[in-house]
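User: Hi! I have a protein structure encoded as tokens and I'd like to know what sequence might fold into it. I'm fairly new to this, so please keep things simple.
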């Protein structure tokens, strides 16, 4: 596992960014939820801010590394997304490329819950899921119409190290019966460059409230927008298996997300986008039980169920919807 970032280093970054005074006694409170960054709430004389520093080695059991410079892409994605859908992400207050540190607006948990926590607690709102799909679709549509972003977010190597290799390539090695399908999906994902992709549209990275607030855009790259939609749907399917008492509500939430997202697709035929989402979904489901970053809340029986459903879909035996 990776070493924690020294508090004095983060305090120095705050001073460097102009968010604290030299010698100021800054209170740092670690924030949980991610595996790829050190995230702290910094209480300064000027008020609370969130400090985020990218880690070279991610906090997972597998040896999973990524360039710390990805924090620059995250800052750029947050700024771009906010210009398309105001309020859809926290404001970037400052950014320091040398220390790989970003300062973000602090959003009070009293008014901004966490979507993953809500879903796992059985608080499932199809309307909120629809609003997530709408916001994501708007960002994808705007970016697809802005060809200048392709060069600005030309992060193919980053996306390979954070998504394609750990989620698809490693899973192919771990699940031989689905290896051919997974390798083909990985090849297509590498080749499809259509819009600005967030790369981690997971409920843990979405705050609830008046509107969805999307966090953690460390994987931001110019790629296939279907990946983002499938990534989010993956988590709704996993929770459907984990929470059978709420299965109908989760199916409704997934359907609402999908419908509002596809309603925003104007960069290609809707059927083409939907087909790629459906192809990616079982691959990502399998990755979350057999890849480098297994989801933590499933028990062994649930993992076996997910694996069987995903392998059946990838090998053409049965679709996810069945």
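Assistant: Happy to help. Inverse folding works backwards from shape to sequence: for each of the 322 positions I chose a residue that suits the local structure. Here it is:
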């Amino acid at each position: 596992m990776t070493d924690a970032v020294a508090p004095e280093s983060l305090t120095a970054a705050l001073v460097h960014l102009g968010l604290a005074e030299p010698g100021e006694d800054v209170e740092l409170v670690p924030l949980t939820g991610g595996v790829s960054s050190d995230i702290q709430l910094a209480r300064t004389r000027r008020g609370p801010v969130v400090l985020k520093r990218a880690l070279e080695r991610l906090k997972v059991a597998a040896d999973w590394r990524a360039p710390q410079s990805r924090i620059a892409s995250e800052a750029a994605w947050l700024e771009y997304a906010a210009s398309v859908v105001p309020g859809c992400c926290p404001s970037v207050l400052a950014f320091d490329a040398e220390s790989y540190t970003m300062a973000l607006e602090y959003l009070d948990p009293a008014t901004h819950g966490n979507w993953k926590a809500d879903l796992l607690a059985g608080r499932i709102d199809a309307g909120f899921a629809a609003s997530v799909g709408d916001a994501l679709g708007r960002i994808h549509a705007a970016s697809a119409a802005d060809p200048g972003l392709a060069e600005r977010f030309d992060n193919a190597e980053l996306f390979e190290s954070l998504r394609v290799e750990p989620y698809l390539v490693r899973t192919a090695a771990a699940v031989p019966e689905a290896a051919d399908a997974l390798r083909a999906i990985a090849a297509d994902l590498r080749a499809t460059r259509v819009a600005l992709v967030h790369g981690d549209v997971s409920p843990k990275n979405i705050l609830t409230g008046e509107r969805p607030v999307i966090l953690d855009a460390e994987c931001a790259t110019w790629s296939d927008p279907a990946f983002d939609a499938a990534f989010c749907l993956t988590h709704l399917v996993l929770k459907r298996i984990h929470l059978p008492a709420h299965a109908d509500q989760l199916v409704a939430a997934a359907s609402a997300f999908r419908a509002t997202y596809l309603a925003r697709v104007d960069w290609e035929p809707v059927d083409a986008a939907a087909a790629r989402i459906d192809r990616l979904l079982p691959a990502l489901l399998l990755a979350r039980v057999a890849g480098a970053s297994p989801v933590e809340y499933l028990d062994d029986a649930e993992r076996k169920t997910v694996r069987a459903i995903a392998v059946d879909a990838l090998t053409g035996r049965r679709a996810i919807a069945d």
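A useful reference point when you look it over: The mean pLDDT is 89. Feel free to ask if any position seems puzzling.
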